[in-house]
Amino acid sequence: MAIRVLLADDEPIILKGLRKLLPWESLGMEIAGQAGDGAELAELIRELKPDIVISDISMPHRSGIDIMRWMGEEGLSAKVVFISAYQEFAYAKEALSLGAVDYLIKPIEKGQLAAALDKATAFIRERGEAIRSKDKLERLEAKRRTEELQEELSRLAEGTLPARSEAYRSLEETMRAPFYTAMAVSIGRLRGGAGRWTEQERKLAEFAVDNILSELIVASGAGQYFDKNGMKMLIVAHADALKPYETAQDIKAKMNGYLKLDVSIGVGLAVRELGKLGESCRQAALALEMKYFEGLNKVLPYAEAAPAPSVEGELYERRAEIVRGLTGRDRKSALESLNRLLASIRKAAEGNKALAVSTAFSSMLAVVQELRKADVAIGGDGGFDIQGLQARLGDYDTYDEMAQGLREMLEELYAAIDNRSGRDKLQLARVKQYIEEHYAEELTLESVAAVAYMNPYYFSAFFKKHTNRNFKAYVTELRMREAVRLLTTTDLMVYEIAEKVGYNNARHFSDVFKKTYGAIPNEYKQSIRKP
Questions:
Q1: How many other CB atoms are there within 10 angstroms of residue 7's CB atom?
Q2: pLDDT, tens digit, for every residue of 310-336?
Q3: Can you give 328-390 as a three-state secondary structure string?
Q4: What is the CATH number of domain 157-301?
Q5: pTM of model > 0.90
Q6: CATH of 3-125, one of 3.30.450.40, 3.55.40.10, 3.40.50.2300, 3.40.50.2000
Q7: Of 1, 377, 406, 429, which has the highest C-beta tally within 10 A?
Q8: Where do runs of H (alpha helix) occur along 175-310?
């Protein structure tokens, strides 16, 4: 008798894809029906009594979690396979605790669905409470043994597991291999995402990462992993010297592709004895720290670091050069000196983020102090914000990001230094005149900065300092004022006015106009002309 399958998803294209994904009849299954929302799914489950339900975990009216609870209350025994998007992992985790067979990440792959159905079929065909109880006990025992193994490995890595202990001998028996290599894994940002993660988002990501590592490391027999100081520490038992690097690349590819996560992996050197694994773990952690200097989302092999050279004299000279550039109003020279300073800091601090941050902070602090000692006025009420600078520098994920941040800070400092010659006013007047003459053309920050012979970063700060608004807002206000004049004094069409004030797209012009005046151009025109 064919196994009866019920499909549910609020996207018709997903339902159509599921029907075509597998040769259902040859698998001994038939699709008994399909539902487009949670309420319809519950009705069909009660009516058709399916053996397997393949359902989206988040649907209108009733979620997958609601369905699972309802089935438990009704005593319905259909096996459920959930499909979900990444951000729905929290629901998936709860569903698994309620008895779901599996969950799959969209887009669904044929092999994944087939494997999930095999699992569901195995559950269906099990007979007798004795078999189910035995299976449950075995799973609990496996989980207990895995947790014990992780604890033993953690102790081994810390050097607190005696070599003659029973736990040590058990580890040797379980992970017998010619070589052992440690890898330190740190998940980073959501690919394409922005900003810092919330605590809940990080927990969801860690749950997903555990699933990937369980499949690639534990289930495959390659080794084991455990948590240590906010990272995942992997132990790979192997005979092939390239195996750890192949495993690391596989993990990175899966996390990039399936979970859309950046991941950095430090790889220690292989050891022949399990008792020396602590050294490989230490090396893996050191290699992982190099992500700050080498960049994120990479596999980083351990290499013995050369002694750091003394660069104190270089740092002093570079800071002096920056001060000379700033006091001489030579922005290019100041930036070039900063770049040389950054190169010196990297040379001295390679492999040590804390040292890089503290040296960069002390250097910028020294520059500001030298400027003030030289009676250089830093405009406004204190001008350049040195407060909290060290925290700002420490917030960057990589050295290159911090270096760019320092360049932008130097531009801020350059803009904050008072220039009493009146040259700024002349430059600003020329810039405003140019904008008024060319606002109907395609104006960019870079093109107008070139008119003032300034770097775009400095020009942006310069313009805001002297006008109390940013460049884009200033141009938009000018264009909108002219648009109102043309609307109220001419019979030009909206698209013609848009072109005359610098917008090639009339729709975009209307959107900006509405955001500025609260009405689209024609509505505004009619309201003005009403008696």
A1: 24
A2: 888 889 889 888 887 887 678 899 999
A3: CCCHHHHHHHHHHHHHHHHHHHCCCHHHHHHHHHHHHHHHHHHHHHCCCCECCCCCCCCCCHH
A4: 3.30.70.270
A5: no
A6: 3.40.50.2300
A7: 406
A8: 199-213, 243-257, 277-289, 291-294
